[in-house]
Specification:
Layout lengths: L3 E7 L6 H8 L5 E6 L6 H5 L5 E5 L5 H11 L4 E4 L4 E3 L1 H13 L4 E10 L2 E3 L9 E6 L3 E5 L4 E5 L5 E13 L2 H21 L8 H16 L6 H28 L3
Parallel strand pairs: 1-2, 1-4, 2-3, 6-11
Antiparallel strand pairs: 4-8, 5-11, 6-7, 6-8, 9-10
Helix pairs in contact: 5-7, 6-7
Length: 254
């Protein structure tokens, strides 16, 4: 491949962005940051890296922002990375090797999440494979405001490459609960708009199933205290989603 363009979506990421940029600076040929109005030091930190182009884009959802970034990219090959992610040294070497010997259109790698300072290797959170290195002429981002995903324009073969992408997503339990509250509201509104309904019995069975799936089936108990907390909050998230959806049908307030 003749080069790689990194695409990053930001808003108020001053605590994360430097770590992210340092991890990719040696493997990409340009970095395009699509920012939706940061009011902290995200821009100043980003522009301290020579390869960065920092572009304001009015927020219209993740898929549109990422596709806009791809449209600005100088190179066909895209490394899509979040501001709160970091490429490990092993993954760095794998990507450099691909640059020299590229033979496919899509590559995926594992993502390892840091939760309150602990790496989570169970709870259905790992290996959490992500297709993040791809030829933009053969894929585009699609999906709702939260869960964007790649849509492939032709038949694909995906190769798994070695190394983890470190994900610093949750710094406190309070932070986790806030995110669950926000995302459950978004999910409820989107599901309501599609006319989908849930039986009241699922308010009990779905949360319990989510907890057992995370803690028992996916061995969250091996992650100790935080594995238990993650599994509990997984059940809370499921409960909030269904409860908020049912409330929308009762009140009609969106």
């Amino acid at each position: 491949m003749n080069g790689i363009s990194a695409i990053i979506i930001t808003k108020n990421e001053e605590k994360n962005i430097k770590r992210c940029l340092q991890s990719i600076d040696s493997i990409v040929d340009e970095i395009i940051i699509i920012d939706s109005g940061s009011t902290d030091l995200t821009k100043e930190i980003s522009l301290s890296f020579k390869k960065v182009s920092f572009i304001y884009y009015e927020w219209q959802g993740y898929s549109k922002a990422k596709n806009y970034g791809n449209s600005l990219a100088k190179y066909d090959w895209i490394l899509s990375i979040d501001a709160d992610e970091e490429i490990s040294s092993e993954l760095n070497k794998s990507i450099l090797s691909i640059k020299k010997n590229e033979d496919l259109k899509f590559y995926r790698f594992s993502r390892l999440t840091n939760y309150c300072g602990k790496w989570i290797k169970h709870c259905h959170w790992y290996p959490d494979y992500q297709i993040r290195l791809f030829n933009k002429n053969h894929a585009e981002w699609v999906g709702d405001s939260v869960h964007e995903k790649l849509h492939f324009k032709d038949d694909i073969t995906v190769k798994t490459i070695n190394g983890d992408c470190y994900h610093y997503t949750i710094y406190s339990i309070e932070d986790h609960l806030k995110k669950v509250n926000i995302y459950s509201s978004i999910w409820a509104k989107e599901t309501y708009s599609k006319g989908k309904k849930y039986n009241s019995l699922l308010l009990l069975t779905k949360p319990l199933g989510s907890f057992l799936n995370s803690y028992i089936i996916h061995k969250g108990f091996l992650d100790g205290y935080y594995g238990f907390i993650i599994s509990i909050i997984s059940g809370i998230s499921r409960f909030q989603r269904i409860a908020k959806l049912k409330n929308l049908y009762k009140t009609g307030n969106t």
